[in-house]
Design goal:
6-stranded antiparallel sheet, alpha+beta, 327 residues, 23% strand, 9 helices
Length: 327
């Protein structure tokens, strides 16, 4: 593919908003299953989805003391939710023509069929306008458009590869490229070892997410506040002077409370002569500014080309020209 519009398909927020709102809640149902049955990992990494060539999948769920071990995977080509276990059995739940209430019932029945015992402590949406309505009562959200969902998945996997390429240059503690179901965004976080003292009154979700200094990069499809798909990056906690640092053409700093995030509109990105290069330059520029102001040892943490050994790095025959690489 050489055409940039084909490389990164258009997906205006309003064009698929009803399908997005339904799919968001679908992913929250399964995400809460992961929350209840996964082995807890730092910064909530056990409850997020991983991208696949066909959709989104949980990490393996269950534990070593009892069975079964299982995964829940959304297949956006067959348009099913596939719950499969380590005994070779599986349940498929069709996604079209189904409400949130219907999917919730089907998921709980499917898990019971596989012998998975799970009770969701809070079986209702998280941080959405209908947070008080149980999944089992939501017949309003029932719009699943297979073509729109498949296009959204194409956007995710293409942006996901950009985030993977960006991630490959960092050898410190770093999250997987993962899809967060609570906020419906794809993200990767780089961490320093600096512990952050947070107010005791802060909620447990936020406390765990931001317990260490981090630089986050990601993509979301848009929402009621930002009605356009957007590539973003921020530093938490934000070092003084970050928003005064320059960004590549087309990117901008946006105030978010007392801090800032860097935004790059997806539509501007997809029209660039080199969308991948433009995205990498944007993400790297925020990292360079944020890590410098926060005092990170960037030379020690770098692994250009995904290589940590200095001799192998020198001998790498296909070293790409990376934007803003330290000289």
């Amino acid at each position: 593919m050489t055409d940039s519009a084909e490389l990164l398909p258009a997906l205006p927020y309003e064009s698929w908003r009803p399908a997005k709102e339904t799919l968001h809640r679908f992913t929250q149902i399964v995400g809460k299953v992961a929350l209840a049955t996964g082995i807890r990992r730092n910064h909530w990494w056990h409850i997020t989805y991983r991208l696949t060539a066909r959709g989104l999948s949980t990490v393996p769920l269950g534990d070593a003391r009892g069975g079964p071990v299982f995964t829940c995977a959304f297949d956006f080509f067959d348009h099913v939710l596939r719950i499969a276990d380590d005994r070779g059995t599986e349940v498929e739940i069709e996604l079209p023509d189904r409400s949130v209430a219907s999917l919730y019932t089907a998921v709980m029945d499917g898990l019971a069929e596989l012998g998975v015992e799970v009770v969701l402590p809070h079986p209702h949406p998280f941080d959405l306008p209908d947070v008080g309505r149980p999944f089992a009562e939501d017949t309003e959200h029932a719009h699943y458009d297979p073509d729109q969902v498949r296009r959204a998945h194409t956007v995710l996997v293409r942006v996901g590869r950009i985030l993977e390429e960006f991630s490959a240059t960092y050898s410190g503690k770093i999250s997987p490229v993962q899809f967060f179901w609570h906020s419906f965004d794809l993200a990767v976080q780089r961490f320093s070892d600096r512990h952050i003292d947070l107010p005791e009154t802060l909620d447990s979700v936020t406390r765990e997410a931001y317990s260490r200094e981090e630089i986050s990069a990601g993509f979301w499809f848009g929402d009621a506040k930002v009605r356009a798909p957007t590539l973003y990056s921020y530093v938490a906690p934000e070092p003084e002077g970050l928003a005064d640092r320059p960004l590549p053409p087309g990117a901008r700093w946006v105030a978010a409370g007392s801090s800032h995030s860097a935004y790059f509109d997806y539509d501007d990105l997809r029209r660039a002569d080199d969308p991948v290069g433009a995205a990498l330059e944007f993400l790297q520029s925020v990292y360079v500014s944020g890590s410098e102001l926060a005092g990170w040892d960037t030379a020690r943490l770098a692994c250009w080309g995904g290589i940590t050994d200095p001799i192998l790095e020198r001998e790498h025959p296909r070293w790409p020209e990376w934007p803003l690489k330290p000289r």
